[in-house]
Amino acid sequence: MPQFLNTQDADFEASFTALLGAKREDSPDVDAVVAQIIADVRAHGDAEVIRLTEKFDRLELTPETLRFSEAEIEEYCARVSDEDRAALELAADRIRAYHARQMPADDSWTDESGATLGWRWSAVSAAGLYVPGGLASYPSSVLMNAIPAKVAGVGRLAIVVPTPDGIANPLVLLAAKIAGVDEIYRIGGAQAVAALAYGTETIEPVDKITGPGNAFVAAAKRRVFGKVGIDMIAGPSEILVIADKYNTPDWIALDLLSQAEHDESAQSILITDDAEFGQQVAAAVDKRLETLQRRDIAGASWRDFGAVIVVKDLDEAAALSDRIAPEHLELCVQDPDALSEKITHAGAIFLGQFTPEAIGDYVGGPNHVLPTARSARFSSGLSVMDFLKRTTLSKMTVDSLRAIGPAAATLAESESLEAHGLSVLARLDALNEK
Amino acid sequence: MPQFLNTQDADFEASFTALLGAKREDSPDVDAVVAQIIADVRAHGDAEVIRLTEKFDRLELTPETLRFSEAEIEEYCARVSDEDRAALELAADRIRAYHARQMPADDSWTDESGATLGWRWSAVSAAGLYVPGGLASYPSSVLMNAIPAKVAGVGRLAIVVPTPDGIANPLVLLAAKIAGVDEIYRIGGAQAVAALAYGTETIEPVDKITGPGNAFVAAAKRRVFGKVGIDMIAGPSEILVIADKYNTPDWIALDLLSQAEHDESAQSILITDDAEFGQQVAAAVDKRLETLQRRDIAGASWRDFGAVIVVKDLDEAAALSDRIAPEHLELCVQDPDALSEKITHAGAIFLGQFTPEAIGDYVGGPNHVLPTARSARFSSGLSVMDFLKRTTLSKMTVDSLRAIGPAAATLAESESLEAHGLSVLARLDALNEK
């Protein structure tokens, strides 16, 4: 049974705070192991990556077979059904179109002092994308990570994907090909992250690493941060559905379950202004759990972390939503646009009853890599911005240096940074002598 | 003596690689100490912050005096000279104008399937800014951190600044006031970072923490990352000047010294296509070092990490610059705009001989918080973007769900996520029955 809360209850605030603070993930402390793996890969390169791949993935490789050949990729791609291929291509087209609109503009202007100011954006030269192996090897995540990188203009995009016992997912390889990935390596774990960050004889180092992974991968990403850029470290998935009584309970139940089935640590919350509707949804969840393939996982998530919260009105729902700062937020209400205006903190909002969150996981267009664990308060989903960086530009004229240089010299003096001040004053003195 | 390299020398590549890889900073391992401080502040709140402030800053506080009162702030601000105040205001106006242009636009559109897609930006609700105490207490850094936050629309901006022995810098308080900071606390160290991240009885928690600090502050920021957002962890400052012979050697020398005087770990590099000019600049540096106030620091930095690199032409200079990915890049050449076009990786570019880097530290307009240690390959200087986050929006119509829903269901099935698929199919089935 999930928790049932009602904002009218005396103990609501305590229960809601406990729900917000519930620790859903126990990350094993693998930092020492990971530090050793990274040091070993830096010291021994390919040989160490190959040794660890044999150990963990039961797969014997050579420097020549670390990377999938073009022929192998073609062979795997040929195994994909026409239906799956068409679905991947539709998804890729829509993700590409959405992310293309995110490209920021360069700017340049001359201010009243005569100084030219501005900035320009440029892409990261090389990026690496971690793709988990086994069950969590999702072709959709390949599209969601690789397409923004390519839209941003990343020149070289390398994927690492472990293939335990040599088994690869044809859809992952096809997704990589559709997204324009340049290199695919059949390695995983902390050793793959180390290889991307520091390079080996065979693998050129990259500048940025993104993509999800297990505790070892997350720890390795934290460790190489600084040497390379990384994306966020994602936690278990979450959904918040705000629904009024004008909804089909079974649809809302399925939306809640579509997060719950990801992971026993996932969290699905329904907020409704109709207590009876809340009960109907909970009953529909139970019914679906009788037959769902992943009912063990989804059932554990719903039982341990699920919640139905009854509010007195939708304004109260919006306020609670902002305290949750959900990764995914569905607004299944009569006027979703109006309710959306009242929301400040959410990774992605899905408006109206015909926009189940699963649309956003695959084909909507927006990215499905989104901030978890309340981090939507301060961070955003993956986008082209993650693969771009900005260089600021400034150019003084003689007049603009005369106009603003003295203030710089004054501030430099106040900070006891004499050379800073002199670098301005020496120029101003020379100009005044002319 | 700094290093002299020439790209024509046989051992250039080895020497240049060594220069790039030189470890300039020895960060003490303070992680265990910092972890304990954070745990103690979480457990004991104000009392622990007060205890540690007495221990480290020799300052007795109460919950009532943790924060500067409005009257105190006014009193400190009144001590600032008119010249300093005018310089701070000019700097603030220019920084505000530059950052206001960075504000990204929301977007919303309807695609060919009838779906409405888009995103909107919103500001972080509350941000905290760390300001170092003592010698490194720079009012310019207050402006550079606080103004982008306020331009972005951060509702509540709190500063923490240690005041060892109770001594505060009036310019820091005035800069905070000019920038629109809402709260100023006289605390520092890891305890101040913990108080901002987790809150105490007196200090409300924030969502994002920015600003420079010592090893304890940096370790604390790393530790609270996830609970709150943080900015980059900055390393020692760097400047690269590309200069041809049509420059005054003394000006270039001062530009190199203006980074060197920050820190013995700072790095100043000159690249020139004229060996004789390189010697003239080195001689000018030596001459200035005879009298510079901070000659011990600047001299050590120049001796240990400085370099003069002679190249055969400016194209070669641009290529080396991209390998360095400098924090600050001055282009003191006849056609700086043309050379700038050849640069991809740099935090900030200063064009022409009348744009000394110190202009950018104070009054140019662009931010002076910039990526160090080659991280300009993948990251950008501080901007309004650091205080904004994006929520993606999608809204399907019945027609758009019919158009793209089946592909989502296909992909969900290929990933063995049944509930994802059912959440789409249940809706499509109901629509088809109508």
UniProtKB/TrEMBL annotation, chains A, B:
Substrate binds at residues 237, 259, 262, 328, 361, 415, 420. It comes from the Bacteria. GO terms for cellular component: cytosol. NAD(+) binds at residues 130, 191, 214. The keyword NAD applies. It catalyses: L-histidinol + 2 NAD(+) + H2O = L-histidine + 2 NADH + 3 H(+). InterPro entries: Ald_DH/histidinol_DH (IPR016161), Histidinol_DH_CS (IPR001692), Histidinol_DH_monofunct (IPR022695), Hstdl_DH (IPR012131). Keywords: Amino-acid biosynthesis, Histidine biosynthesis, Metal-binding, NAD, Oxidoreductase, Zinc. It is an enzyme of class 1 (oxidoreductase). Zn(2+) binds at residues 259, 262, 361, 420. Its EC number is 1.1.1.23. Belongs to the histidinol dehydrogenase family. Catalyzes the sequential NAD-dependent oxidations of L-histidinol to L-histidinaldehyde and then to L-histidine. HAMAP family: HisD. This is Histidinol dehydrogenase. It comes from Cognatishimia activa.
